[in-house]
Give the backbone structure.
Amino acid sequence: MVDRLLGRHGSDQGHTDDPVSAVWAHVQEARNLKRPHTLELLKAMADEFVELHGDRVFGDDSAIVTGFARISGRRVVVLGFQKGQDTEENIRRNFGLPHPEGYRKAMRIMDLAERYAMPVLTFVDVQGAFPGAAAEERGIAEAIASSIGMMTRLRTPIVVVITGEGGSGGALGLAVGDTIVALENSIYSVISPEGCATILWRSGEHSHEAAVAMKVTAGEQQEMGIVDIVIPEPGEGAHTDPAETARRIREVVLERFDALGRVPLDELVEARFRKFRVMGPYIVADRPVAPPERTGIADRLRGLLSSRPSMPGMKRDVPPGREEV
Amino acid sequence: MVDRLLGRHGSDQGHTDDPVSAVWAHVQEARNLKRPHTLELLKAMADEFVELHGDRVFGDDSAIVTGFARISGRRVVVLGFQKGQDTEENIRRNFGLPHPEGYRKAMRIMDLAERYAMPVLTFVDVQGAFPGAAAEERGIAEAIASSIGMMTRLRTPIVVVITGEGGSGGALGLAVGDTIVALENSIYSVISPEGCATILWRSGEHSHEAAVAMKVTAGEQQEMGIVDIVIPEPGEGAHTDPAETARRIREVVLERFDALGRVPLDELVEARFRKFRVMGPYIVADRPVAPPERTGIADRLRGLLSSRPSMPGMKRDVPPGREEV
Amino acid sequence: MPVRLPFRPRRDTYPPDLWTKCPGCAEMLFNKQLDKTLRVCPNCGHHFRISAKARIEQLVDGGSFVERDADLTPVDALGFVDLKAYPDRLMAAQLATGLRDAAMWGLAAMGSKPISMCVMDFGFIGGSMGSVVGEKVARAGEAAIAERIPLLIVSSSGGARMQEGTYSLMQLAKTMSVVERVKAARVPFISVMTDPTTGGVFASFAAVGDVNLAEPNALIRFAGDRVSAGTIGEELPPEYALAEFWMSHGFVDRIVPRAKLRDEIITLLGFLVAPSNGHAESAPSPTSRPRSFLNALTGALSSDGNGDQNRGEAGNG
Amino acid sequence: MPVRLPFRPRRDTYPPDLWTKCPGCAEMLFNKQLDKTLRVCPNCGHHFRISAKARIEQLVDGGSFVERDADLTPVDALGFVDLKAYPDRLMAAQLATGLRDAAMWGLAAMGSKPISMCVMDFGFIGGSMGSVVGEKVARAGEAAIAERIPLLIVSSSGGARMQEGTYSLMQLAKTMSVVERVKAARVPFISVMTDPTTGGVFASFAAVGDVNLAEPNALIRFAGDRVSAGTIGEELPPEYALAEFWMSHGFVDRIVPRAKLRDEIITLLGFLVAPSNGHAESAPSPTSRPRSFLNALTGALSSDGNGDQNRGEAGNG
Ligand SMILES: [Zn+2]
Ligand SMILES: [Zn+2]
């Protein structure tokens, strides 16, 4: 799949003739500040948008926008991360890094979506939750956990669109849904490549390798079964034609809402539960690891090697399991 | 009823030979810092108490204590205002003046009460919510409103005990229940007598008259139908025999929980709804007030005087309606 | 909880003469002109307080408001006397406003959508909430549930009415008990906070709308100036507790200038009310049932619009 | 989200020798003595990290733990290689701990009350949560629902496991989807946060117990030191993000020294579990139904306690 990336970006990026550079170019494209954010996409996609503010507890987080939109006549609740267009707006929006109030606002509006039978559309583009003390001490962890939990059980269709960076728990806080869509040049990862490199390689300089190792690109995430649909981007990327990007997103989202809207709510919520309940592969070994006191290394290795793969967590393409496990 | 107060307090208070002084002596007794607070009463009443902390949003308010208690073998959720016993504790507990976090903590614990089928016992003794900016801007109004609302629908029995000052919305935030009990020397009012005097008399010096006018004493509140049960205090007041005070409260509370526990939950919640839904007297006039442009004062007075009393809101003793209304 | 506000001159509310001085910019404004701008200063945008009646006229589809329970009248249950007797205050307020108490409720249409609404009137004893105001809020909520139509409450109040003692305090519980049922029934509730929305009104229904709107610069607070100053002695900035403050603190969804208020509410109703034609937009609320009010309202509108003739519940209950 | 912690020496977790130096007070402690004090320094109260197995032994009624799904084994789905290959890290951790991954789950009794429990093991790749850990948490929750017995989770984790990429991230959704069902079923959930509880574990099940307990001085945080320092450059006080900090910020109900943890959990279970004898203490939960697990557990305990023999669901489902 790196070849596919090479094919797309070979013309306008340097050093894309090796896989690592190709992936890193993809990461940089996902982070391109000129890519359209939630409000820009909405402006192109929606006939009407009424933003709603405030978590009814502490504040209003401008890094997450929420509201009611009408898209092709359909009432939709929209939640999305919002980076700024310029320095002033970036400061006001905290560079798109949300505090707990953003997730709590989103939960309040999701409750309205459920109560008034509006489907939910989320736009995900966030490096991660704000990592500072103000977010930590007001419970960013609790807010993300609760928002994830609420989305697993919300009784209305949810379509998630990853438009740029899908970074860590901060992204997942708005990224649980019935269908996970991603723009072609977006990324999705458990930790930023830089953070991963700092911890595992003990140096941020290895972030390119970390990005490759974590398989962060939209296409790889689709192959892993995390992303359901990848939307090709127009021209040299979403930022080169935001209107066409919005049109493509709208088309997919409306088709999904039509399809999901036909599923009875009980089935819809049960299917969403199953989707996330089975995420992540594992195998069932023949017998448990023996306690280290009683067995020799050779015995233990034999026990480990005799494991039989079963992977109940895999829904589609099973990734190549390494046989030495 | 002022005579009743005179009879009780004539011996140990000065100037109780006039009604205003008698009521003011009652107010002072209700505010006596030596009266037992939630934790002192619990210590005497309960076999076991596990305090729970935190609103899971912002903080832990020491002016409101919450937890699980076992009273005569019965599992009970307890919520109560807590003033300090000394200066240091008073500072830590913000002199018993709660912030929004206190009510949000209480709501969280009430949810546990409903889910795990524990009745709720609240102890009310608060001058009012903390009137400073920190409480205001974190939504003390929203927190009180939500707590009141939650208590009107909570699916478990609730017994409220007003032990000292029942001050304004700050008190009502924990004072909606199936049975409202009050210690004899407690008070309950929509605003502190001082606040009322400042606004209506334009001087805090008239707080004594305001206390009389608002009928703040437990006995008067019972006659008005706000308080259901008044518990006589031992000796010269609750502070002179906290153990006996706790014993009397426990007896009433357990009887109430027994009785309320026999009522099916749907009926219990419906009865509680009705109790508060009909609070407050009014009359239905024969015809609406004519617009000022069209009618003379004489006509309007006639219209007003011809009102017929109906007072659907009064449950028990109808207070003496003034005929000129 | 009921608080003394930094009252602007009472005559702003019901100006008796041709000219009004704007407290925002000190400009003298011609009243007829001011009425045309919905009593918003064309110079500085100051929003004057307006009566419940004027508010209703500004908001609803022309002539669609059908008042209910205009005959609910307060009583002096406590025999309350401060510098004046409560009955005298009531009578003065009734004569000045033509209302029996500080709120009006009824059924109306906005953008042809039926709603149940309650509007408070600050000109009646500072819009304070006693038993009648609480009752009207409660009945508006119950009608919204019965008819499955949205609830709109426009607040303008100094708080609970001291002269009715703890009965006034209990209106917080009375109104919230109904608001909880409105929410449980999945009936939309839009709360509009106008200047001022304070004390027990802010600490009950006004704070908990599905959507909370506020007029620009409206004073919204729980604790009053005197209460704060007396107890705490804090110095507060001038923008403290105004509408914009509450939006940044997370308790107001949108600040809406009066000229846009009607349109914005209609827009919100368009989202909060699922379309009634059966196309599969999304799964309906499990508790939804057919609405009959629109027919009832049409009938009512063809009568003379006198609320007394419509005291019974319209529709199928 | 998985963060680099200020790791104490790895040997604290599984000390290979007779003596351990206390990182709290620098005292040299005799390991056998330390085991008697539940691996709490008798001198300064420092709580050493302990293995899942030791934790379970300290908490549950003697011999009552029946492990389930000990055979769940991680796979290297991404072919992940950093300075080491992921399979090599896994094998090293498996050899060191005797576990296949960083959590154990099973059924047990505490104070004779049946519970479903899951305990994380920091010694296994920093207690990081990949697909197996998420699966065990989820299965523990599902067993709690099926048996209508309380769920106890003891967390000790550096966060999500990077080597499993977004599969690890998805464990937040997997575990929370089950926790939401636990709550909907009115099944009690006690979360115990021990040193450290960070990253994606704090941002999922660990934060949302009906009751959140924490061991003294446990480090609990979402964003790691390096993440914070790199992005924000804030200076943080030493008590930042320790258990006591979280209690004052409203996210931890109680801080419980290890010596009291078992008793306190039993006390809480006494409140959260309605007595099964039918006396009219209070109205029962509408969803409650008879419990069968106690019988099943009794049966299991009379066997040899090998989890493999109890892989099927006990009870009536
Ligand atoms: Zn002006
Ligand atoms: Zn030590």
In short: Residues 49-272 of chain D form a domain with the 2-enoyl-CoA Hydratase; Chain A, domain 1 fold (CATH 3.90.226.10). Residues 122 and 156 of chain D are 6 Å apart (CA to CA). Chain D touches chain B through 31 residues (CB under 8 Å). The first helix of chain D runs from residue 31 to 36.
